[in-house]
Amino acid sequence: MSTSLAEIAAEKRLILLIGQGGVGKTTCAAALALRCAAMGRRTAVLTLDPSPRLGTALGLRRIDESPRAITLPEAVAAGGSLDAFRLDTKRTFDRIVEKLAPGPDGARPILDHPIYRAISSSLGGSDAYMALQRLYELDEEARYEALVVDTPPVVHARDLLSAPLRLSALVETDAVRVLANPAVALARTGSRLAKTSAALLLPLLERASGLALRGEVARFVERFEGVLVGLTERAGAADELLRSSQTSFVAVVRAADSSPEALDALRRTFASRGIEIDALVVNRLTPPAGRDRSIPLERRTLGAPEGTAPAVQCMEADIDARRAAEARALGRIRKLVHAGDDVSLVELTSLEHDVSTLSELETLGRALCGGSPLRAAKQGGRTAEP
Amino acid sequence: MAARSTPCTLFVTGKGGAGKSLVAGALAQEGARRGLRVALVDAVDPEDLTDLSGPRAGRAIEFLSLDPRSALSHLLTRLLRFGFLSDRLMDSRTFSAVAAAAPGLYDLVRLDYLRELAEGRVRGRYDLLVVNAPASGHGVGFLEAPRLVGDVVPLGPAATVARAARAFTTAGPRFRAVVVALPEELSLAETRDLHAELQRLGVAVTPTVVNGVYPARASAEQASWLLSNPGSSDARLYIARRERQLGLLEAMASPAGPALTLPYSFKGVALAATDRARLFDVVAGDLT
Known about the structure:
The structure holds 2 protein chains of 2 kinds.
Chain A: H1 5-11, E1 14-18, H2 25-38, E2 42-47, H3 52-57, E3 68-70, H4 73-78, E4 81-86, H5 89-100, H6 108-111, H7 114-122, H8 126-141, E5 146-150, H9 157-180, H10 182-187, H11 192-209, H12 213-243, E6 247-254, H13 260-271, E7 277-285, H14 297-300, H15 308-339, E8 344-349, H16 358-368
Parallel strand pairs in A: 1-5, 1-6, 2-4, 2-5, 6-7, 7-8
Antiparallel strand pairs in A: 3-4
Helix pairs in contact in A: 1-2, 2-16, 5-8, 5-12, 8-9, 8-12, 9-12
Chain B: E1 8-13, H1 20-33, E2 38-41, E3 61-64, H2 68-80, H3 92-101, H4 105-118, E4 128-132, H5 145-152, H6 157-169, E5 175-181, H7 185-201, E6 204-205, E7 209-213, H8 220-228, H9 233-249, E8 260-263, H10 273-284
Parallel strand pairs in B: 1-4, 1-5, 2-3, 2-4, 5-6, 5-7, 7-8
Helix pairs in contact in B: 1-10, 2-4, 4-5, 4-6, 5-6
C-alpha cells in the first residue's frame, strides 16, 4: 500500500528529498513544507544551497543558519507554522566538536589542528553527514513536528545513507588509529598475506607521514578521543533516525535525463539498507501540445515575416521529439513503479520559469499532494496547461 | 605546431549530468582523427560506467581506466623500490586503511598515476591525454588532493608526490581543465564556483563548454513576431527557453574567453562531426 505525498506531509516527522542537482528538489522541499504547515503542523524546511529566488519567494531577504519564520496566514489558521533555514556544514561540525571536546582547552586545539582540518574538509559526503547531524540536533530539540530536508546533492545516494556510520568508522578506526598506531591497526586485518603487506607498508607510512607518529598524532588522538565517543553515539542515532517509520524519502527526478535503470539502482541501494523510497516526483515535463496545433500552419503564420512557417515546423518537430523521449522514459518509469514496491508517483509539468512567489509555491505544494491542473494524470494523457 | 613530445592533458570536469563523458569522448575522437596519439582515461567510479554514452568507437584511441588499487600499487613500487610489491599484497582492507589514513591520498594516488601516464612512463607516449573526471559532488574533486595531503604531511615521500602532482596540474597549457555545464540557473552558480576554485589552485582553464543549448531556428524578426502573436505555443516555448539559455551564457565565460556552446540533441543522437571539430578547435586547436 503506497503512501501518497499528502499522507507523507500529514504524518511523517522527517521528510528527505533526494535527487541530483538542478531537478527542482529545493523548490519541491519548500512547497511540501508549506503543505505541512497548512495542515497545522509546526514545520521546518532545511536547505543546503538555497537560491536567492527561493528566499524571495518565501519572503526572506536571505536564508541563513538561524531559523526564520515564514508568514503564512493559512498555516496560522490551522495552528501550524513554517521556519526556513540553511545548513552550514562547517559551522555544524565545529559546533559538534565544541560541544563534545573535553578538557580546559576546549575545542580550539582540535579545530586548529591540520589533521582535523584535513579530515573535516576532505571526507566524501561530509555535507551529507553534517545535514544529518543537524537533523539529529533538531530532532533532539523537538521544536518541530515536521522537518522537510532538501538533501545535499551527493554523487551517489549511498554516500548520504552511509554518512553517519562512515564518519565515525573512518575517524575512529582507520584514519586516526592507523596514523596513531599503525602496527596494531593493520595487524588486525588477519591473514598472513595482510600481515606481510602490513609489515612492508608500515615503514612507508612512518616515512610518508612526515609526522613523528608517536608525538603529534598521539596528542591529537588524545584530544579527539572524547569527541569520537560523542560522534559515535550521534552517528548511531542519526542512522536510526533515517530508518525510522516516521521518516520518509521522496526522490525527485527529471524525465529528460533519468533512466529507469538508474532509478531502479537507486531504489535497490536504499532497499539494501532497509529503507524504502516512498514517492517519486518526475519534474519538468514539457507541457503538452496546445490546441493551436489543430489549425493549419499557414493560417497560424498569416502576416508573419517570410520563412516563419518552416521555422515553426522545425521547432514544433523538435519539441515533439522531446515529448516523445519524455513519454518513453515516463512509460518505463511507470512500469517500474507499478511492478515494484509501492511508490507513489507524481508527474509535474514544467512551469517554464522559476518559482518566485509564495503563491506559486503554494500551488506547487497542492499539485504535489494531489488535485491540481499542474499535476498530470497518473495513467494515460496529460491534463491541459492551466 | 606544439612539439609532439610534450603531451597535453585535458581534464574534463563539471557536475554530473552536464555531458562530461560526451565532451571527453568527442575530444578524444577528434584528436585521433587529426593524427594525435590519444588516450582517453575514464577516471570514473565503476558504478558510473553503465551511464556512459560517449562514443566508444574511435580510431586509434587508447581507452584506459584509473583503477585506484593498481595506481597505488604502481606508486608504492616506485617509492619502496620493491619490484615484487604487487597487487596481490594489497588486500582490500589494508588498502582501505591506507587510503583512509591520509585524507586526499586516494585522489592523490590517481592524480600521480595520471601524471605518470602523461609523461609516458606507464603505457607508452601520447600526444593527448583526455581525462573524463569523476563528477565532483563539490568543488574540483581530486585536483585538490595535492593541497590536502600537503597540509597534513608536509614532509616525506607523500609530500614529494603531492608536489609533483601539483606541478603537473599547474603546468599551464599542458594541463587544461575543461568545465562542462548546462545552460541552467543552478549550473551557472556552480560553474562560477568551479572556476574560482580552479583559479585558486592555479589550474589553467579552457572556455567553458555549455552543453544543451537550443539551436536558433528563427531569425530575430521571426522570433519577435512569434512571441507577440498566438501562432504557435510550441514555437513560443522554444524561443523563450532558448532566450533564457542565452541570457546565462555571458556569465558562463571563463578566464579563457566566452563559452562554447554545444547544441541540444532533440532526437538523442551523438554530436555532429562539425560540432566535434569546433569543440576541439576551441579547447585544443593549438595542438595540431
